[in-house]
Design goal:
N-utilizing Substance Protein B Homolog, Chain A, RNA binding, Transcription antitermination factor NusB, NusB_fam, NusB_RsmB_TIM44
């Protein structure tokens, strides 16, 4: 399920594609936005499935090792800690995830199992994995810690996996960090009694979030001239033409939220776009954007343009 920040990033990506395109079709861009958001949900399901695929690969590896003619004592009596990992078992048995994978026909790790092998071989080289396997009866906390390290230190940073996902679907290139963060947060919150929170097939939290994504895209595009004029004159050392494209789009999105989203708190808008600028623009962009947005808030407030509704919105 997407957060508002995920939605803002998706709208930012769609706006960037729109402004870079020779064919600026709003309806077409709106369809692309919905498609791109749905693709992100596919990636999250796929990355969860990858951990199950790694466990299944480990099981097959164990069985082959036991059948060796000159198997060592360790190979004859291997640890089943990873195979019996309770957290991965919960992911594997999650009905929402299983149904989603089946309906979407996301069976990549069966078709391209060499990437599972690459990741498993890397996992076997980790000292902490060996330590985990030596535990006689790992508890849920042990299993959880191991899975989080597996994801953060083996899966997420793997360059070959990143290249594979890029080749599969171009929109996943920017989605990967967001999905990784989302999955690690989910794993950290997981308890033995909260397996239902593993995967939610809903893309949006509610209809309001879905409408917000569309309206943010449309408000920026349909009011482009007005938003551009608001930026003009606020950057004495920079002509509008010299502002980085991403920075200008982020500024327009922030201004649009000030003017056209009365229930959106001003501080939330500023904080969210500062964090997004740190992720997607230059190192100094956040300071630049913060200065402009703060200046505009004061100006809009003095002019009575900030029609915010509710407490804590200014």
């Amino acid at each position: 399920m997407l957060t508002r920040r995920h939605i803002r990033v998706k709208v930012l990506q769609s706006l960037y594609a729109f402004y870079q395109s020779d064919e600026q079709d709003l309806d077409k861009q709106e369809k692309f936005l919905h498609f791109s958001i749905a693709q992100m949900q596919d990636l999250q399901a796929l990355m969860l499935q990858l951990m199950v695929a790694l466990r299944d690969h480990a099981d097959k590896f164990l069985q082959k090792s036991q059948k060796k003619h000159l198997a060592t004592q360790v190979e004859k009596n291997p640890s089943r800690a990873f195979i019996d990992n309770k957290v991965i078992g919960m992911i594997s048995e999650n009905s929402n995830l299983s149904e989603y994978l089946k309906n979407k026909k996301l069976n990549y790790w069966n078709l391209d199992d060499e990437y599972v092998t690459i990741l498993f071989n890397e996992l076997k080289q980790q000292d902490w994995y060996d330590s985990y396997l030596q535990k006689e009866n790992p508890n849920f906390a042990d299993d959880k810690e191991m899975v989080i390290r597996l994801y953060k230190e083996v899966i997420a940073p793997n360059e070959k996996l990143y290249e594979y996902l890029e080749d599969k679907r171009l929109t996943w290139l920017d989605d990967f960090p967001l999905v990784n963060t989302s999955i690690v947060k989910m794993l950290n919150k997981l308890t033995e009694k909260r397996e239902a929170s593993i995967f939610n097939p809903q893309v949006y939290k509610d209809e309001e979030d879905k409408e917000y994504s569309v309206q943010l895209l449309r408000k920026v595009i349909l009011n482009d001239d007005k938003l551009s004029k608001e930026v003009d004159g606020k950057t004495p050392n920079w002509d509008t033409e010299r502002i980085a494209d991403i920075d200008l789009i982020i500024l327009k999105m922030g201004i649009a939220e000030f003017l056209y989203f009365p229930s959106m708190p001003i501080r939330v808008t500023i904080n969210e776009y500062l964090e997004i600028s740190k992720e997607y623009s230059t190192p100094k962009s956040s300071f630049f954007i913060n200065g402009i947005l703060d200046k505009l808030v004061k100006e809009f407030s003095d002019a009575g343009k900030l029609n915010k509704i509710g407490r804590g919105l200014t």
